[in-house]
Amino acid sequence: MPPMEVSFNCVMQRRDETGMKIIDTHCDALLKLQMEKRRVWDETPQLLDFRHAETLDTNLERLKRGQVMTQFFAVFIEPDLPSDEKWQHALEQIDLFYTEIIGKHPEMKHIRSWRELQELKEGEIGAVLTLEGADAFGNDLVKLRHLYRLGVLSIGLTWNNANLCADGAGEPRGGGLTLLGKEVVALNNEHRVWTDVSHLSIAGFWDVMELADYPFASHSNARAICDHPRNLNDDQIKAMFQKQGLIQVVFCPSFINAGKDTASIADLIRHIDHLCALGGEKQIGFGSDFDGISDYITDLEDAGQYQNLIESLLQHYSEEQVRGFAYENFLHRIKALA
Ligand SMILES: [Zn+2]
After folding, report:
1. How far is the CA of 171 from the centre of ligand 1 (A)?
2. CA of 288 to the centre of ligand 1 (A)
3. What is the Å distance from ligand 1's center to 216 Cα?
4. Residue 40's pLDDT is what?
5. φ and ψ at 226, to 5 degrees?
6. Checking DSSP bridges between strand 125-132 and strand 108-110, what pairing results, if any?
7. What was the pLDDT predicted at 13?
8. Best CA proximity match to 30, nearest among 170, 152, 185, 191
9. pLDDT at position 16, please?
């Protein structure tokens, strides 16, 4: 047996012992699948194979290698698309979720309610549909109700731009929720769907805190550590924890280190330390943003490398704490929703 193989086996064995299940609350694999399929202008449209396409950070093989037990898949609509094409794009991404992710892979289990997530069996990987920005349904609540029926369990009102519901984090106006936005939050409450604040303006965030029964930040870091409008300041973080919400750290280097496109796992852990210092030990988790980012944390470059993060965390935190970050904090919270 060549030496390389010996050390590889040792590493694998160590990871099996310390490996932990993971819940990841944000990725953009659906957008990537759709963009490749729609590449009609260069006449080489491709259907990416969800099992092992190299270009998918969150393909099935990588989810298994990283021990991801549940992956959230966002429906994301580019802000510059003409309004009348947005619903069609959302439907296409949802269709790819059903056909390419759920339909072709028996291991992938569509989670349509929080109870189903709690009842996942060994060997199954949960797949949750989410919406990143209300642009998809415009002001049409019939479409929104269809999204709930299709299994969407988390809704962010905006991406970075403004829309009919609210202003996003990148909108200079900085407005809060419109009457329509408030109605959407009320509908989320009724359907026990998370209202995701990760891309909202600060004013929008505070409106959601007032109205949402299930507030959530699916992929955001701490602004005190990295001053970026996509991150949450200490007052926001404390308010989220007070409302029993969860904050899921994101792996995008420019949200980890201000003005940089590189980051280490240790840099990410500084955000986790800060969130814990503000009382969030039982209310944080991971929302990688894989397939939505083009720069990566070193040694955490796809879902298959998740256990590198776990190993590093175990050097700073107890096994119980790390298990909380990895999946138990999330499972604990949804007990109240199931
Ligand atoms: Zn995002």
Report:
1. 15
2. 10
3. 13
4. 59
5. -140, 110
6. parallel
7. 39
8. 152
9. 47
User: Considering all CA atoms of the chain, what is the largest pairwise distance in Å, rounded to the nearest integer?
Assistant: 67
Structure token digits, residue 203 = 């004013």
Closest by alpha carbon to 73, among 53, 54, 94, 55?
A: 94
Ligand 1 center–CA 187 separation, angstroms: 22
Residue 116 CA to ligand 1 center (angstroms) comes to: 25
Which residues of the chain carry a pLDDT beneath 50? 1-16
Q: Which two tokens mark 326? A: 């990895």
CA of 220 to the centre of ligand 1 (A): 9
Alpha carbon of 253 to ligand 1 centroid (Å): 13
Q: Which residues pair with 130 in a beta bridge?
A: 74, 154
| Predicted local distance difference test score (pLDDT) of residue 41 | 59
**Residue 14: CB atoms within 10 Å:** 12
What pLDDT digit, counting tens, does each position of 249-295 carry? 999 999 999 999 999 999 999 999 999 999 999 999 999 999 999 99
What's the pLDDT score for residue 337?
77
